[in-house]
Amino acid sequence: MKTPPHSSSRRDFLRSSLAFGAVSILPSNLVLGANSSNGRAPSDLVNLAVIGIGNQGYSDLSTMLGSGHCRIVALCDVDMEGGHTHAARYRCGLTDKPPGKDAPPVEKHKAKAYTDFRKMFDEMADEIDAVLIATPDHSHFAATMLAMSLGKHVYVEKPLAHTYGQTARLMAMAEKSKVVTQMGNQGHSGANYFQFKAWTEAGIIKDVTRITAHMNERRRWHGWGATVKEYPKDPMPAGMQWDQWIDVVAAEHPFSRKLHPQEWRSWYDYGSGAFGDWGPHLLDTCHRFLELGLPSKVAVLRRDGANPLVFPQASTIRFDFPERGSMPACEVTWYDGTENRPTLEAEYGSKIGGPGKVIYGKDLTFQGGSHGSPLYIIPREKFMEMRATLPKFPQKNSNHYANFLLACKGEEEARSPFSVSGPLTQVFNLGVIAQRLGVDLEFDREKATVTNSEAALALMDPAPRKGWEQFYKL
């Protein structure tokens, strides 16, 4: 069995971690690469560890189990006592079944419970094939870097990382480690993925020069977010590991119900706003199959209720993408806020519903929803005229979770690997910086840097807080 490279340096790294003193990590016997499954036959179950097991993590975990392709060997959460996280159902020794069809009881998985992912890897590295990471946006990076450095396949919730620099490091580590990676934009395994791919290859979607995307549902920070002046403070719940929750972020703030369990989305230091939350479900196929890459400019067109701590009440951001080979330059405009919707030209005979996108090509215009919702041509009369001749696309495919687990076993290729979801995430990273500062950004695509704002440069790759620097050196 093959040992991951540099295992001794990783052992030293874990020893030096401030959280739990001197430890020794045994080298993993996971063979690096897409076909590896800890030396077992591909038909065996994937040994899965889960970091972040409440709310979205609970949903992800349940669906992973329901696929029948994995067993749970470890569970990690900073708030294992918190009833809101459903953590109690999944701690070792409990018998509740997750809400997945024919999913086995958790106690049969013999999962061990942890509050520190570093300790989990120290004690169980050899027993883990893959890791599901469903923590808040600001805390994806460290756990994902460590998992990949130990040769573990990783499924990471969207957006991939909280900063541009973190995302770049994750992409580099994924390339170096050769593990299977997947970002949790679940619609990237849905009908829209296969349709967009087929229609682009057939030349139905082509010469796209403009895209609008919007998310207009009420967000958690709407109302109070416009006037807040400082971080609030609440009594610390019993068992809450707040230092672990803060993770690598240098901006340390006291515990508050306005941060945990779900309000972290509201704050620039920890969340990604409506754009980072919903953009991965709306712009993923556009970005991939139109080969958008990184923008040359990000323009802030609207920013209502701007606040230095919390996301705006409404915002409009435009991204300028230059020509790419034979593809024309393309503008992508994002709208959020309950009353901030794009205008749809009257000739299309449709309306702007909630969350969705409109894609304007030279000859055809397309409208679609979020996640895996398929596109349709507008106006409807044009769609009906072309319907019989439109390319077919596969209708029965593995879902996003099963696709990841099957990729871990070497039976499929992951559909949203970091090589695809990383550059997409960096678009969100740049958009959030523009929202935060309220300034237009000029971006040099070749040098991968902002050229007109020192404040933006500082936010692209801020230093981690003391004691967490080594995750940036893996």
Strand numbers in spatial order across the main sheet: 13-12-11-7-10-9-8-14-15
CATH class of the largest domain: Alpha Beta
Q: How would a crystallographer describe the biggest sheet?
A: 9 strands, mixed
Percent range for β-strand residues: 15-25%
> Strand-and-helix sequence, N→C?
HEHEHEHEHEHEHEHHHEEEEEEHHHEEH
- Output the structural class: alpha/beta
CATH architectural designation of the largest domain? 2-Layer Sandwich
Number of helices: 14
Radius of gyration: 22 Å
Percent of residues in helices: 25-40%
Overall tally of structural domains: 2
Instruction: Point out poorly predicted stretches.
Output: 1-11, 13-42, 97-101
Q: Which fold name is given in CATH as the topology of the largest domain? A: Dihydrodipicolinate Reductase, domain 2
How many strand elements?
A: 15
Mean pLDDT metric: 88
- Principal-axes geometry comes out as globular
> How widely separated are the two ends?
23 Å
What would you say this structure looks like, in words?
The protein is of the alpha/beta class. The protein has two domains: 7-188 and 467-472, NAD(P)-binding Rossmann-like Domain (Rossmann fold, 3-Layer(aba) Sandwich), CATH 3.40.50; 190-395 and 417-460, Dihydrodipicolinate Reductase, domain 2 (2-Layer Sandwich), CATH 3.30.360. The chain is 28% helix and 16% strand. It is built from 14 helices and 15 strands. It has helices at 7-16, 56-66, 87-90, 117-124, 141-149, 164-177, 191-201, 242-246, 273-282, 284-289, 380-386, 400-408, 418-437, 454-460; strands at residues 46-51, 70-76, 112-114, 130-133, 153-156, 181-183, 210-215, 297-304, 314-321, 330-336, 356-360, 365-368, 376-378, 441-444, 449-450. Strands 13-12-11-7-10-9-8-14-15 form a nine-stranded mixed β-sheet. Helix 2 links the parallel strand 1 (46-51) and strand 2. The chain is globular and about 60 Å long. The two termini are 23 Å apart.
